[in-house]
Write a structure and sequence with these properties.
- The chain is mainly α.
- It folds into 2 domains: 60 residues, no CATH class; 67 residues, no CATH class.
- Helices cover 34% and strands 0% of the residues.
Length: 145
């Protein structure tokens, strides 16, 4: 994700060039992506300092229209047997909950922040006798090695 200041600079220059003080000078600006996935990379800064740089904190954010995709196209195209589809859908729901902050984090040290997520056992590929083989075949089901 880009730093909000980059968008604010574009907004400022468009207002100046177009002599129009509306957000982005009333130009249509389309930003796509999942805001839950990546924060801007800012070295040696606190969590709060990083969050402040997100586009959600831009001066124009309240005037933006946000469209949400509600259907997972990945799940629509997946080629899974019918008996495993409920597991796949449950995993997709859990991933969304993690992204929405609905899954409680845990701290791995006494003074650390609770920013680690424990993955449920039913979503793990067990490291048993054939752990590596199981991992590879679960990802690349048609791959022979």
């Amino acid at each position: 994700m880009m730093n909000r200041l980059a968008f604010e600079v574009v907004d400022h220059h468009l207002k100046d060039i177009c002599d129009n003080q509306n957000v982005f000078s009333e130009k249509l600006v389309h930003l796509g992506g999942d805001f839950r996935q990546i924060l801007p990379v800012i070295t040696h800064r606190s969590r709060e300092a990083i969050v402040i740089t997100t586009i959600h904190r831009a001066i124009f954010w309240n005037e933006c229209s946000i469209l949400h995709l509600r259907i997972s196209m990945r799940l629509q195209r997946i080629d899974e047997p019918n008996e495993t589809m409920p597991n796949v859908k449950e995993f997709a729901r859990w991933i969304l909950q993690v992204g929405d902050g609905q899954v409680q984090g845990i701290a791995i040290s006494d003074d650390g922040e609770p920013n680690w997520i424990k993955i449920l056992k039913e979503f793990l590929i067990r490291n048993e006798d054939n752990g590596l083989h199981n991992l590879i075949t679960s990802i690349f089901s048609d791959f022979d090695y």
